[in-house]
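Section 3.1: Structural characterization of target chains.
Under the original work plan, the team committed to producing a structural model for every single-chain target entering the pipeline before any wet-lab resources were allocated. The record below documents one such target. The sequence was received from the expression subgroup and is listed exactly as submitted; it comprises 116 residues.
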Amino acid sequence: MASEKEKVGSEVDFGDVLTKVVEIAKKPYVDPEQEALKATKRLKMREKQKKKEENQKAKESNCAHLRQDGSSGIAWMQNSDFIVRGFCPYCQTDFDPTHPQYSALRMIPTRAAILR
């Protein structure tokens, strides 16, 4: 009788081992080198994006948004949502009502005065 109990016990253990092996086999293989490479690429991408944003802010702060004749260089347009937005082709900046200089820039005429 003892041998039958040992058999049953070993079969149960084998079933547990088999389910654990199947669970482990279903997990995808993760290559540590690939993970390190991905992490490095993500870090470089974040640094690149940060530098791009800093360059854009520097461009915007150095741009007067004016043409040579003193008129506004910003192209203003009213979209289908009835909000007037603008775009400066010199510094590639978008202007909407949330921009801090929006009100001041809207006051600058977009066409030069005609001289007679």
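The helical segments are 2-26, 32-62, 102-106.
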